[in-house]
């Protein structure tokens, strides 16, 4: 749970339409979201009763945790809720005895790249043609066809 009154962070196990709508803002494939959800620990952040954001964490290997999806409803952006979800992911990473938290985002996702770096993540690598090879239809973001994924990490 979050420490601020009226704001709660908790796990959820039922992927309903409200969660899916938010997750689709970060990943346009329901099939991929369902696949990731089945192997993730899912968190939601609520303001009062309203769903404000979601985050899916997966364990890609033995020494790291990965934010596979993170989305905050447009009405609640720029209020620190995404940062709170990141802090929860960092707490989970430490709690599991791991030293690295990873995230991947699109090379054209300028806001996300700035956000993750503000939260202490550093760029690690670029997965060339990641989105071209993974999605059937082109994704256009900020007027640019998305091709590459930027991998970022936060180290304990």
UniProtKB/TrEMBL annotation:
One of its GO terms (molecular function) is acyltransferase activity, transferring groups other than amino-acyl groups. The keyword Transport does not apply. Residues 7-140 form the N-acetyltransferase domain. Keywords: Acyltransferase, Transferase. Signal peptide: none annotated. PROSITE patterns: GNAT (PS51186). This is GNAT family acetyltransferase. It comes from Bifidobacterium asteroides. The lineage of its organism: Bacteria, Bacillati, Actinomycetota, Actinomycetes, Bifidobacteriales.
């Amino acid at each position: 749970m979050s420490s601020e009154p009226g704001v709660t962070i908790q796990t959820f196990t039922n992927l309903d339409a409200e969660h899916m709508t938010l997750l689709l803002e970060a990943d346009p494939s329901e099939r991929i979201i369902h696949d990731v959800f089945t192997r993730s620990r899912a968190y939601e952040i609520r303001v009062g009763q309203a769903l404000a954001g979601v985050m899916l964490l997966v364990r890609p290997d033995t020494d790291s945790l990965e934010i596979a999806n993170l989305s905050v409803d447009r009405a609640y952006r720029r209020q620190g809720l995404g940062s709170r979800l990141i802090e929860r992911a960092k707490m989970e990473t430490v709690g599991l005895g791991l030293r690295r938290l990873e995230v991947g985002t699109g090379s054209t996702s300028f806001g996300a790249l700035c956000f993750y770096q503000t939260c202490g993540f550093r760029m690690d690598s670029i997965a060339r043609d990641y989105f071209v090879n993974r999605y059937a239809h082109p994704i256009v973001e900020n007027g640019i066809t998305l091709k590459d994924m930027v991998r970022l990490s936060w180290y304990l």
